[in-house]
């Protein structure tokens, strides 16, 4: 199954919220109106073709989309659209901007839900394309990837999935279980390491994570590893401690390589919705976040938050997770995500 198919299948809680939201906005009002004039599309600009049924629709011989209800784009409709996007966790500013862009040059036109979905997907893709960047790989060996994020956000799983994918791509990977205070986190990382066939460096419970990071750096250098992925603690309850812990890890690995860490990945859980925005703000103060990974897009109707994140921070989005299996994480593709999010096909 292609990742797009998987994404579309698993993003359904978000996409049904947005997709049916758009359909409701158009059809509820259209139901109150008299039947549309016979050829509303005839007066539309040539650059905005009438919506066509998708490939599946054509194969099944569905009636062309002219039968779809249409609604005149006016202030009331824009307000509903804005409200729906806010409800879908896109954030107020992003929802306003997206709605304004959709409205531009189209006020008074009669649009169908399919057209609206296409317009919305284009707007979302436009916002997200500049940030859709896979984790950059450098010739530097070992490339040190520090992974930060609150407990439970999916750091361990993301490290396991990335390690396994890099290993499959022929890279030599070492993992350091830097959350030394939580035995369960270390064990979980060891399970992922075994699954991926990647060594996991651990340290006794409660020992200094920076000292583990140093040892892991030594091992990665000695073994000629391409990548060293360092898991870290995510205790936000005591931010000062966490900041010092992260700063110490960075100080120590810089003794071995002044250019490290080469990436600082912030892992965010999509189910936290708008809270993900404040997590970015907090972690940017704690660490020099260079890119984002968003997990658990499969279990939530709040996937729109990724659009808000892209719009607000402009940080690279390296990958997204849509499940718990090794191949449920893939590079972020703006167009695919935008289309899946509004419930459109490839
Ligand atoms: N449905 C789903 N579950 C996920 C995804 N990514 C991670 N999980 C699950 O989320 C839970 C937390 O993930 P972890 O990787 O342990 O998160 P963590 O940030 O390392 O958390 P700690 O180990 O508590 O520090 C686990 O049960 C994972 O299986 C995803 O993309 N989709």
In short:
The chain has 346 residues and is of the alpha/beta class. It has 13 helices and 10 strands. The strands form 2 sheets. The protein has an 8-stranded mixed sheet with strand order 5-4-6-3-7-8-9-10, sandwiched between helices. It has a two-stranded antiparallel ribbon with strand order 1-2.
Order of helices and strands: HHHEHHEHEHEHEHEHEHEHEEH
Major sheet attributes: 8 strands, mixed
CATH-derived architecture of the largest domain: 3-Layer(aba) Sandwich
Can you tell me the overall shape?
A: elongated
CATH superfamily of the largest domain: P-loop containing nucleotide triphosphate hydrolases
Rg from alpha-carbon coordinates: 23 Å
Query: Roughly what fraction of the amino acids lie in strands?
Result: 5-15%
How far the N terminus sits from the C terminus, by CA atoms, comes to 13 Å
CATH structural fold name of the largest domain? Rossmann fold
Count the E strands: 10
List the ions, cofactors and other small molecules found in this model.
guanosine-5'-triphosphate
CATH hierarchy class name of the largest domain: Alpha Beta
**Proportion of residues in helical segments:** 40-55%
Instruction: Tell me, rounded to a whole number, the average pLDDT.
Output: 89
Report the structural category.
Answer: alpha/beta
Strand order of the largest sheet: 5-4-6-3-7-8-9-10
Number of helices: 13
Q: Can you tell me the residue ranges where pLDDT is under 50 for at least 5 consecutive residues? A: 36-51
Tell me the domain tally.
Answer: 2
Membrane topology: Peripheral membrane protein
InterPro entries: AAA+_ATPase (IPR003593), P-loop_NTPase (IPR027417), Signal_recog_particl_SRP54_hlx (IPR013822), SR_rcpt_FtsY (IPR004390), SRP/SRP_N (IPR036225), SRP54_GTPase_dom (IPR000897), SRP54_N_sf (IPR042101)
Subcellular location: Cell inner membrane; Cytoplasm
Binding site for GTP: 149-156, 231-235, 295-298
């Amino acid at each position: 199954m292609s990742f797009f198919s998987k994404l579309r299948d698993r993003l359904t809680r978000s996409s049904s919220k947005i997709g049916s939201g758009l359909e409701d906005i158009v059809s509820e009002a259209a139901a109150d109106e008299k039947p549309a004039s016979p050829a509303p599309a005839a007066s539309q600009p040539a650059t905005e073709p009438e919506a066509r049924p998708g490939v599946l629709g054509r194969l099944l011989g569905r009636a062309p989309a002219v039968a779809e209800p249409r609604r005149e784009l006016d202030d009331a409709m824009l307000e509903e659209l804005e409200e729906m996007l806010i409800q879908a966790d896109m954030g107020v500013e992003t929802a306003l901007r997206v709605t304004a862009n959709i409205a531009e040059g189209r006020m008074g036109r009669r649009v169908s839900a399919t057209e609206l979905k296409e317009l919305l997907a284009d707007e979302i893709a436009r916002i997200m394309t500049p940030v859709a960047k896979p984790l950059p790989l450098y010739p530097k060996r070992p490339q040190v990837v520090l992974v930060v994020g609150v407990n439970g956000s999916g750091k361990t799983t993301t490290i396991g999935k990335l390690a396994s994918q890099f290993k499959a791509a022929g890279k030599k990977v070492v993992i350091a279980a830097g959350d030394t205070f939580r035995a369960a986190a270390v064990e979980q990382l060891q399970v992922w390491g075994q699954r991926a066939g990647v060594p996991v460096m651990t340290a006794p419970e409660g020992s200094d994570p920076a000292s583990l990071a140093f040892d892991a750096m030594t091992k990665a250098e000695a073994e000629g590893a391409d990548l060293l992925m360092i898991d870290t603690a995510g205790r936000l309850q005591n931010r000062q401690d966490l900041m010092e812990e992260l700063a110490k890890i960075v100080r120590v690995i810089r003794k071995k390589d002044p250019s490290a860490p080469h990436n600082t990945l912030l892992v965010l859980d999509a189910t936290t919705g708008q809270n993900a925005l404040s997590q970015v703000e907090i972690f940017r103060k704690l660490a020099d976040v260079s890119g984002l990974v968003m997990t658990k897009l499969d279990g939530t109707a709040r996937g729109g938050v990724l659009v808000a994140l892209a719009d607000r921070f402009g940080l690279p989005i390296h990958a997204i997770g849509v499940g718990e299996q090794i191949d449920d994480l893939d590079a972020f593709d703006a167009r695919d995500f935008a289309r899946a999010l509004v419930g459109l096909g490839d």
